[in-house]
Amino acid sequence: MRYTAASLLALASLVAAEVPQEHSHEQFLIAVDELLALNNPLNIQAAVFGLLGNDAASEGAGLVADPDCLHQATADQAFTNAKEAGDVDGMANALIFRAIERNTGSVGLKSVICTETPVNPEIAALTQHQDPASEGAAEENKRITLALAQQLALVGADPQLALKSGTFAPGEIGDPTGAGNTCDDLDDPVGCIFTRNLLVEDATAEEIDAAVAEVVGDAAPGNAVGNGTAPAECVIVDPNAGAANGTVGNNTGNANAPATPTTGGANLQDFAGALGGPAPPVESGAGERPFVVNGAAFLDAATAKVRSCDIQNNQCFNAINSGQLDADTSECATQQQDCIANARAGAARLRRRLRRRAALRAMRTRQANGLDLGGCSDPTVTFATGLDGRQEASFGPNSQSEFNHGSALNINIITSFICGRLSSSCKAPEETVQACQAGATAASTQQGQAAADAFNSALGF
Question: What is the residue range of the signal peptide feature (predicted)?
């Protein structure tokens, strides 16, 4: 979720505080929330709380005792989940999130650095950007960006993505409005710092290449993910949505985001609470990220439902503040928690079922498979109803732990993803990747189960 009512009240109570900017890099908050949905033992309520001041952060900290360490703990858990899934893009998103600036009490005030040691050394190598108006911020923020670039390269991601962790131009110290040069827009799924062209890059591309060469040598790739593809954004924006198109892809090697998927399916949001209005619908359709809420597209249904819950919570809070609804804001928070619990419960049941099925299938078929799959065991595709809560039959990877991707109506989306992962994360030899690509071509000429069978057969399954 993006806000709880209590966190909004805490923000509103700050005197001479820096204007909130926690949604300025929204694409990375959404990405980390997707990762937290996989496993969240600390019960962190949402990524956004790690970027808030301590009072507001405490409202969503779950079991994290020190609010100054919530930002780090959130990134650490997200990175762990991505690493376990072999998700290079996810690891990159968690690393970038760790380096994003955290809100402070006034323009020029630095945020506290967490002194606890995270689980992952990649996260331990990073700290958050500091207010650009603070003393020594330019040098410190450049150091953070270059350290981030090194970690991105080491996990196989594009080190130039480190530039997207940057912050705004310095504000005026003593500004009574606390506004600085920031922006904050919950409804911009990319991040207003990108769509409004407010990002100030901390380093040059050449400086990043030089920093990366220190840890991986002179052959550091511009994009190490494999197959020449840039890491996928976690939200797809309608190409007609103004400045967002083209801006987001800066430094990724892919400036044009795919089009928003076509929707029209049933509403997957089954939460019945309606305080302040019902949660907006979650529609499924065709596309790489087929689940859509108010124009924002997501990889899986659970994360889309959580986004729907967030929007409902904002509606509820606004209705109370405007006097349209006679209720207490705590009721909005309770409703939001119930809504998110409902979304995650359904996702957990589906993941358990898919994992059991994938494990059994992999066990049966691996023996007959003559191809070297590298570090992976089951690259097969399933065709079934109920994937990600869909009512219609769709395609998806059998092994979500190795090939973590939502379902799709077009098998080409799934097979392309699997072949890319075989090359990058699985480290399979070229012979296997070529067999995968041949299977993808064969599958593209078929429909339904026949398409899945054609792809799986090409890999010896």
Answer: 1-17
Residue 70 structure tokens: 């919530």
> Count H helices, E strands: the chain?
15, 5
Q: Which residues contact 59 (CB under 8 A, 6 or more apart)?
A: 4, 6, 7, 10, 45, 49
- Sheet strands (E) in 285-433: 291-293, 296-298, 381-384, 394-397
Instruction: Name which of 116, 166, 126 is nearest 147 in CA terms.
Output: 126
The pTM of the full predicted model, rounded to 2 decimals, is: 0.48
Among 352, 359, 278, residue whose Cα is nearest residue 312: 278
d(CA 22, CA 5): 15
Rounded Cα distance between 335 and 271, Å, is 10
Q: Are 158 and 173 in contact (CB under 8 A)?
A: no
Query: For 100-127, what is the mean pLDDT?
Result: 90
What's the CA gap between 319 and 316, in Å, rounded?
Answer: 5
3-state secondary structure 242-294: CCHHHHCCCCCCCCCCCCCCECCCCECCCCCCCCCCCCCCCEECECCCCEEEC
Residue 221 pLDDT exceeds 50: no
109 and 18 Cβ atoms separated by less than 8 Å: yes
Residues 6+ away with beta carbon under 8 Å from 74: 32, 36, 44, 47, 49, 50, 97
Query: Looking at the predicted structure, is the pLDDT value of residue 64 above 80?
Result: yes
